[in-house]
Amino acid sequence: MQVYRQTGDKKYLAPIPRALAYLKKSELPAGRLARFYELPTNRPLYFNKQYELVETADDLPTHYAFLVRSNVDRLERDYDKLLATPPARLRPAKKTPKYEMSDALTAATRQAIDGQDERGAWVEEGRLRAADPEGNVRQIITTQTFIENVDTLSRFLAAV
After folding, report:
1. Are 28 and 67 in contact (CB under 8 A)?
2. 4, 16, 19, 45: which has the fewest Cβ within 10 Å?
3. Which of 6, 1, 3, 13 is nearest to 90 (CA)?
4. How many CA atoms lie within 13 Å of 110's alpha carbon, on the beta-carbon side?
5. Beta-bridge partners for 125
6. Within the chain, what is the greatest distance between any pair of CA atoms?
7. Beta strands per DSSP E along the chain
């Protein structure tokens, strides 16, 4: 739908009815969706607190969203609204901000690149509190560091 808003080309709306039908078929009670579904049965799959693959949601870890809010109804309303809006009246998303090259951005980019291990991962000291209560794991990858570094690299590429 975002690409259609940008381009006005209805070909980008073509797969949406099938996607909405799939999401509706996949909805669980209370307007939720499982994070994972088995192919081709479409049964919801979960991991319990021992990280065993299970088919029930009664013993889920609390640090990961194995169940998410569906939002299918909102998506369908957005789709219907787009269909009713003439392409000339679409409001494209705001343009991506321009990034200026600077010594600080160059230094941050160099630091992000140099901070990668041989696999290209940003590994740092830390603990896995839930998955490793004994504290045996000392080297971890954090989402926060990943996000910060990818943001830095993206801003550098946009500036170039």
Report:
1. yes
2. 19
3. 6
4. 6
5. 139
6. 60
7. 32-34, 36-37, 44-47, 53-54, 67-69, 124-125, 139-140
Residue 105 CB-half CA count within 13 A: 15
β-strand partners of 36:
45
Helix ranges (H only) for 29-142 are: 72-84, 103-114
Torsion over CA: 27, 29, 34, 38 (sign):
negative
Name the pTM for this structure: 0.61
Convert the pLDDT of each residue in 75-114 to its tens digit.
999 999 999 998 888 877 667 678 899 999 999 999 999 9
Rounded distance, CA 71 to CA 25, Å?
13
The dihedral built from the CA positions of residue 100, 106, 112 and 118, taken in this order, carries a sign that is positive
Q: Tokens for 18?
A: 């099938």
Measured distance CA(68)–CA(40) in Å, rounded:
21
